[in-house]
Structure formats: structure tokens, C-alpha cells
Specification:
about 280 residues; alpha+beta; five-stranded antiparallel β-sheet; three-stranded antiparallel β-sheet; 6 helices
Length: about 280
């Protein structure tokens, strides 16, 4: 496995070529992803001779969620991309907010990753030990009264994603939301249920819970803290996408991570693992 690419690069002001393509390109709907809980349309974006495959999630196709009454999921997906870009890790595919054939929605670059999750990222193992190169998550029922240990790889790409999830308070980090790209990079998708002001962290990536953050993660969090200051470009752009209370909660989570210096543990007040897990 190649080492993670990209290093912290503060600043979210520049518009990338892919953002321009997804924002200005003409969207042609090619089909619908039927298994998605909300409307997810597979599209092609075309602009000035360039094309890209993408997904379009119109706000009109979102199911109302009782615990996310403010704003919409599309704006939260855009916010997750902005925070990811501010870390310099590039963990979320390019995501924009724009009008489309069915109104305002989120448009995200399609990552052709085959069937997620990548073999070697998640597994069920016999016994109570994770084994070398793996981190334990929880015991899972596998039928006929049997249990197996759910584990994830001790992978620096996953560890970066666990830090991002803690910052954005991701309530739905499933195995199927992990997309390995052909070049070895790993992306996370489906961040609509993020940024709640209350603790909603629900993930399969609990293997580092309570462990010290890496030096790289502490540096990234310190950079994020500065970028989230009142009037900073990242804070200004997030204020257009989430509520003031939610933005304050992002700042508080970053400050707490820096103060504790460890990966968070499950709070016990919210299911720690999403269902279904994949």
C-alpha cells in the first residue's frame, strides 16, 4: 500500500479545475442508484470539452430526518468536503453545491472504486484478538449463536479519516462509505448526517479510541483551529452551510481533540456503530 499522499495545506479559497467542471458543467442524468436511501442520480458533467462522472443528490430527494431539522444534507456534504480540503488530506471527493435538473443539490465527483469496502480494510475474525495489522472494533453476531470480532486495518488512511469524522461529527461512517481509488488513495463519502451540535459520532473506525493522536493529526488540528477562527475563509464558508450553533460545535470539537490529545471514545449516549455496518 502506498503511503498517504498530500500534506496539510491550509486555505480553501482556490477553485480547483474539478470544482469548476462540477459547478459550471452541464449535467446529464444517466440513471439512479436504487439502493440509496435518498435520491442519488448518476450524471455526467460537461464543460469546455472536459467531462467527469459524478453523483447528484437533489435536496428535493432527501428524506426528512427528525434529528437534523436545520438546513439540508446537501449543504452538510459540501461542508465536509471543505473541512477535508482544509486538512490537506483530500479525503472527500470534490463536492459542490449547485442547481441541477431537479433543483439545488450536492454534486460530487464519482470515484470508480469497484465494490466497497476494499478487501483488507474491514474483516470479521474468530476469537477475541484482532491480530497484527488490525484494530478491534466490537463483537458482532454472525448467526447460530456465534460471534466474531469486527476489525479494521491499522491503516494511516483510515486513521486520517477517523480524525476527520471526529471533527465533523459524522453519524454514519459505514464500510460501504470507504472508497479506495486505483492510485491507492482512500476517500470517504456520504457525509449528510454530519455537523450536528450534539455528539452523534457513529463509525466503524473505533480501533484507535483513546489512543494518542499522531503528530501529523495534532498539526492538522492546530491548523484547522486557526482556519475556524471568526472571519477566516473556512469559517465564513461553513457559516453559509451549517448553523451558528453547529459551527461553534465544530470549533469546540477541534479544541477538545487538541486538549485531550487522543482519539475520542464512544459517548454511550448514541449508538456507536452504524447499522447496517456496510
Amino acid at each position: 500500500m502506498p503511503p498517504p499522499e498530500r500534506v496539510p495545506a491550509p486555505g480553501v479559497s482556490a477553485v480547483t479545475p474539478m470544482e469548476e467542471l462540477l459547478t459550471r458543467g452541464e449535467l446529464t442524468v444517466r440513471g439512479r442508484i436504487a439502493e440509496a436511501s435518498n435520491a442519488v442520480l448518476l450524471c455526467t458533467a460537461a464543460y469546455e470539452g472536459r467531462t467527469a462522472e459524478c453523483v447528484y443528490k437533489p435536496v428535493k430527494g432527501e428524506r426528512p430526518l427528525w434529528d437534523f431539522p436545520d438546513g439540508n444534507l446537501a449543504r452538510r456534504e459540501r461542508a465536509a468536503y471543505l473541512v477535508s480540503e482544509a486538512t490537506g488530506w483530500g479525503l472527500v471527493p470534490t463536492t459542490v453545491l449547485r442547481d441541477g435538473p431537479y433543483g439545488e443539490g450536492m454534486v460530487q465527483h464519482w470515484i470508480d472504486a469497484g465494490e466497497p469496502p476494499e478487501p483488507g480494510l474491514l474483516a470479521l475474525v474468530e476469537g477475541e484478538e484482532a491480530g497484527e495489522g488490525w484494530k478491534p472494533v466490537a463483537l458482532a453476531e454472525v448467526g447460530e449463536g456465534r460471534t466474531a470480532l469486527l476489525v479494521h486495518a491499522d491503516d494511516p488512511r483510515l486513521r486520517r479519516l477517523a480524525v476527520l469524522d471526529a471533527v465533523i461529527n459524522n453519524g454514519d461512517r459505514k464500510g460501504g462509505h470507504l472508497l479506495p481509488a486505483p492510485d491507492g488513495r482512500l476517500y470517504g463519502i456520504d457525509h449528510g448526517v454530519s455537523f450536528h451540535s450534539e455528539d452523534k459520532l457513529r463509525t466503524l473506525l473505533w480501533g484507535w479510541a483513546g489512543e494518542p493522536l499522531t503528530g501529523e493529526a495534532r498539526s492538522v488540528l492546530a491548523s484547522l483551529e486557526a482556519q475556524l477562527a471568526e472571519g477566516a475563509p473556512l469559517a465564513t464558508r461553513l457559516a453559509e452551510l451549517i448553523t451558528p450553533v453547529e459551527l461553534a460545535a465544530v470549533r469546540a470539537r477541534v479544541a477538545l481533540l487538541l486538549s485531550n490529545g487522543t482519539h475520542p471514545k464512544p459517548s454511550g449516549q448514541w449508538p456507536a456503530i452504524p447499522w447496517p455496518p456496510v
